[in-house]
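Researcher: For the annotation table, I need C-alpha cells for Acyl-CoA dehydrogenase. Please keep the output clean. Sequence:
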Amino acid sequence: MLDVAWGDPQCPLEIRELRDRVADFVRMRVVPCEPVLDGGGPDAAAALRRLRKEAKAEDLWALPLPAELGGQGLPLRSYAHVAEAEGASDHGPAALGSASLLDALMLWRHGSVRVRDRYLAPLVAGDLRVCYAMTEPDVPGTDPFLTTTRADDNEGGGWRLTGHKWFVSGAADADLVTVLARTDGRAPERNGLSLLLVPTVSRGFRVVRELPVLGAAGQAEIELDGVAVDDGHLIGERGQALAVAAERLQLGRILRSLRWLGQAARAFELMRERAVTRTRSRGPLGDLQLVQRHVFESLLALRTTRPLVHEAASRLDAGGDAHVEVGLAKVAAARTLQLVADAAIQVHGAAGLGPDTALPALFRTGRAARVLDGPDELHITSVARRVLRTDPA
C-alpha cells in the first residue's frame, strides 16, 4: 500500500530503504502512542523519552542534523524523502530527533561561542527544548516590522526584554525561547530587529495561557516582563534578525510541506482502506463512482504536489534562490492535506468525525496549514510579484 500514496520514482534505492524503516517506526511505534502524546503531561513525556531511546537504538535518530552536532548529516535533498514518512504523525519529528533541526542550525550558524557550547549538544540529544516566538497579539504575523516587543540595553550589560508573543509552539514545555524583539528604532523600521535566546526559567518570563488551535493544544501566549539576558544570548548581529529569520523560514516551510505530504498520504491510505473494506448491501463502498472520484482527486493532488515540494527542497539544498519554489510548495502542500483529509472524512462518514481515526487531527492540521508560516495569500502575492518582475530574456 505504501507505493500508492508514497511512490516516488526519483527516490534513490538506499534512501528508499531508510524511508521505509522510518515509515515502519512511525506506524508501529509512534502512531499507537498518539493518544498519550496528544494528552501532554508526565505520561506524554515518558512516552516520548521511550520512543527517542528506541529511535537511537535503531540508528534513526537526528537524521538531517549535521554530523558535527551529533546528527547523521543527511542532506536535505535526501532527507526530503524520509521527512514525508517521518511527518505522517505530528510526533514523528520529535520522536526521531529531527524536530530540533531549525533551532540547532540557527544556533550553530549564528549563536555565540557560549550559546553553542552550552546548548547545542543537549538540544541535538533531545534533552533540551527550544521554541521560537515571533508573532504578537494585534500585530499582523506577516509584518514583522511592526514588532512591539522591545529589548533595551540593560544597566551593567546585556538586554532587558518586555512584550507579548502568542501562538508560540511548544512554549509550555520549552527550556529556551528565541524572541524577535526591537533593539533599535521604532516600528516599522526594518533594521532595528534582533533575535535573543531567553531561558524560560528567567525572572519575568511567563506563559500567560494555552491557545488551542481548532481545539488542539500545543500553542501558547507568553509574556516577557523585564526579562534580563546577557550579551552572549544575542543570535546573529544586532539589528539583523530578519536575515536569520528568513533563512529559518525557508527551510521551515519546506520541512512543514514535506510533513504535510506525509500526513496527506496517511489520510489517503485511511480512505483507500475504508473504500475497499467497507461494504454495503450492494457491495464495497469503493464501487461508488463518487467515492472513486474522491480517491482519484486525492491521488492526483498527492502526485502533483510532491514534485513541487521536492524541487523546492533540492533548490534550497543547492543554495539557489528558492523563494518561488518554496511559495508554490507551501501552498500546494497545505491545500493537498486539507483536500485529502476532507475526502477521507467524507468516505468514512460519521466515523471520520469521531475519535477512532486520525482524520479529525489531520483535517485540523490541513486547515491550520493554510495560515501557519504565512497564509496562502502572502505566498500567492509574493510568488506572483517575483514572476511578474522577472525579465523573460
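Researcher: And a one-line annotation?
Model: Residues 243-388 form a domain with the Butyryl-CoA Dehydrogenase, subunit A; domain 3 fold (CATH 1.20.140.10).
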